[in-house]
Every structure is written in C-alpha cells, then in structure tokens.
Amino acid sequence: MKGTLIVRIAISFIFIVFGVWEMLAPVYWAPFVPKFVGAIFNPLFATRIHGLVLLVLGILTLIRFRKKIVSAISSLVLLSVVVSVYLFSGFSDILVRDIVIFLCSLSLLFDADSKPIV
After folding, report:
1. Is 75:45 a contact under the CB 8 Å cutoff?
2. Residue pLDDT, tens place only, 77-115
3. I want to staple 108 with a disulfide (CB 3.0 to 4.6 A). Which of 10, 32, 71, 96 is the partner?
4. Residue 112, helix vs strand vs coil
5. Residues sharing a CB contact under 8 Å with residue 14, sequence separation 6 or more, in sequence order
6. Contact predicate 47/3, CB 8 Å
7. What single DSSP character describes residue 115?
C-alpha cells in the first residue's frame, strides 16, 4: 500500500510539474507537438491544452478522485507521449524514462485497494 502511495505521489508530481511547465513555457514544448496535431491546432495552443490536461490529471491522481478512470486516462496520455517520443527521436534514454513512467501510471490501475471500474 505504501508503494502505491509513493507511485501515486510520483506520478502526480510529474504530471503537475510538466503541466505547469507546458502552460508557462509552451515555446519550449511546441516543437514536440506531432505534425498532424500542429496541422489542426496552433502548436502553442496544443501545448497549453496538453499542459492543462496534465495538471488536472496530476491533481486528480493526487486526491484519488475516481482513481481507476483517472489512472486509465493518465496511462493513455503517457502512452501517447511514449509513441510520440519514439516517432520523434527513436529509441533513447528519454523513451526508456517515459516507458517507466507509463508503467508506473498503469500500475495504479491494478492497485489492490481499488474497486473495479465497472
């Protein structure tokens, strides 16, 4: 149980820090916006929206609000980050880091204290 608490706090911290960072400095993160998204939305706008989503998910994870659903959404967001990083730069240390963060987020879905989603 304490391991799950540590993972939950770590995932929340990552989401909150990167969410705030993307909202405050979208110019830094805009180059990582996939081209197909940049063709539909302004990359700075897409980065700010992504940052807001990360911030909200981080807060919801921290307070355990609908934890199964939030964990599922967080895992999907991180999976999209993993795929984007792989497509953008191939296999790298950053990709390995993001895969580990994804797996930690995914582990929150299988928390022994949790009730099933349905």
Report:
1. no
2. 999 999 999 988 899 999 999 999 999 999 998 875 656
3. 71
4. coil
5. 58, 101
6. no
7. P
Residue of 11, 55, 47, 10 lying closest to 31 (CA atoms):
47
Mapping DSSP onto H, E and C, the string for 19-64 reads: HHHHHHCHHHHHHHCCHHHHHHCCHHHHHHHHHHHHHHHHHHHHCC
Q: What count of other Cβ atoms lies within 10 Å of the Cβ of residue 13?
A: 13
Give phi and psi for 52, each to the nearest 5. Answer: -65, -40
Burial of 70 (0-12, 13-18, 19+ CB in 10 A): buried
* C-alpha dist (Å) from residue 70 to 4, 22, 61, 98: 15, 20, 7, 18
Token pair recorded at residue 26: 């979208």
| CA separation for the pair 25, 37 (Å, rounded) | 18
Q: Residues in the chain, how many?
A: 118
